[in-house]
Amino acid sequence: GESVGLHLPTLSVQEGDNSIINCAYSNSASDYFIWYKQESGKGPQFIIDIRSNMDKRQGQRVTVLLNKTVKHLSLQIAATQPGDSAVYFCAETGAWGKLQFGAGTQVVVTP
Amino acid sequence: DVKVTQSSRYLVKRTGEKVFLECVQDMDHENMFWYRQDPGLGLRLIYFSYDVKMKEKGDIPEGYSVSREKKERFSLILESASTNQTSMYLCASRRQGGADTQYFGPGTRLTVL
């Protein structure tokens, strides 16, 4: 079946460096992609989204890149801070706004 | 701000008990969703509702049922809890139509003994 996956289960980043979290998707019909951040003991929190007719979108310290040719999505976090330590999920939408999630990447920010 | 609340943060039940998990959203969203989250498996969709009294099965509906009598409230029911239903349960809501994100509640960590 269709799936959304993440390349790396854990990413260790030094404080102040940039983080890049990757995601592969397989449903070429998806037209909307979302990145969520989940801190320990909390529900997923929306970070940024991108439509399939775009290849880049920027937010505050975050940038999402979409490469439809290779079905690849990435989240870049600039100047990573300790508060960025969390699990990050990518998700793609289907009918009725249903989301298909990847397993998640744990980002650990080290001092 | 969108607010999605869940009735309990932590819940401990015994095998065979009937369990109710409640979710309420305050943004008049049409769509509501129930997921469970397990280590290494990510979020898996149990059931969703696109409007009042409407429900659709997600990817893993077995052992669960839902109720949506009012727009703001979506209940997940475990008719007879089993140990393999020990999990984190997350509720989400979304405005109908367009590319709009789902907003999640804080989750209920359910342990079935």
Question: Can you walk through the features of this model?
Answer:
The complex is a heterodimer of chains A (111) and B (113). In chain A, strands 2, 4, 5, 9, 10 and 11 form a six-stranded mixed β-sheet that branches. Chain A has a five-stranded antiparallel β-sheet with strand order 1-3-8-7-6, with no helix packed on it. The model of chain A has no long low-confidence stretch (mean pLDDT 88). Chain A has no helices and eleven strands. Chain A is globular. With 111 residues, chain A is mainly β. The N and C termini of chain A lie far apart (41 Å). Chain B is an all-beta fold and 113 residues long. Helix content of chain B is 0%, strand content 52%. Chain B has strands at 4-6, 10-13, 19-25, 31-38, 42-49, 56-57, 65-70, 73-78, 87-94, 103-104, 108-112. In chain B, the strands form two sheets. In chain B, strands 2, 4, 5, 6, 9, 10 and 11 form a seven-stranded mixed β-sheet that branches. Chain B has a four-stranded antiparallel β-sheet with strand order 1-3-8-7, with no helix packed on it. Chain B starts with a strand and ends with a strand. The model of chain B has no long low-confidence stretch (mean pLDDT 93). Chains A and B meet through β4, β5 and β9 of A and β5, β9 and β10 of B.
Write the layout of secondary structure elements.
The complex is a heterodimer of chains A (about 110) and B (about 110).
Chain A (H helix, E strand, L loop, with lengths): L3 E3 L3 E5 L4 E7 L6 E7 L6 E7 L4 E3 L3 E6 L4 E6 L8 E8 L5 E3 L3 E6 L1
Parallel strand pairs in A: 2-11
Antiparallel strand pairs in A: 1-3, 3-8, 4-5, 4-9, 6-7, 7-8, 9-10, 9-11
Chain B lengths: L3 E3 L3 E4 L5 E7 L5 E8 L3 E8 L6 E2 L7 E6 L2 E6 L8 E8 L8 E2 L3 E5 L1
Parallel strand pairs in B: 2-11
Antiparallel strand pairs in B: 1-3, 3-8, 4-5, 4-9, 5-6, 7-8, 9-10, 9-11
